[in-house]
Amino acid sequence: MEINIPAVVAEVTAAFHRYETALNSNDVATLDELFWNSPHTLRYGVGEQLYGAEQIAAFRAGRDPGTGGSAVKRDLLKLWVVTYGHDFGTANCEFLRQGASKIGRQSHTWMRTSEGWRIVAAHVSLLGDPTPMKKA
User: Would you write out the chain's pLDDT as a tens digit for each of its 136 residues?
Assistant: First the structure.
């Protein structure tokens, strides 16, 4: 299996940026489209655990993404894309939501489907205190 085929990295990166644009503009239709329409899809958020595309879409539809229902508005700090072969990849980022003080982290697992690249698993969390390391 080839890791990071340049054309595939470009495709997953473009799909990620399409998601990021939709998130920042509260384009719910595009956000729903980019998640694989399957009961096997999952999204762990900061405060929710969503199993299946239906739960993810229901969360997105009922969510107030920010002050007055506006978009999330966050700044990307780092993006790390790795692809595995031609049809699978991960996109991990660090972000800072505008007006927030904690750095957030997001992981996407992307799969090529007949409809295009889709998120099959996602996780969002906020950076906490470092895990203590055992002294050698």
Answer: 999 999 999 999 999 999 999 999 989 999 999 999 999 999 999 999 999 999 999 998 887 655 445 567 899 999 999 999 999 999 999 999 988 889 999 999 999 999 999 999 999 999 887 778 888 7
| C-beta neighbour count of 50 within 10 angstroms | 19
| DSSP secondary structure letters along 34-76 | HB-SSTT-EEE-SS-EEESHHHHHHHHHH---SGGG----EEE
Q: For the chain, give the number of residues.
A: 136
Write down all domains in the chain, each with its CATH number in brackets: 6-126 (3.10.450.50)
Residue position matching structure tokens 């031609």: 86
Whether this prediction's pTM lies above 0.90 is answered by no
Q: State residue 23 phi and psi, 5-degree precision.
A: -65, -45
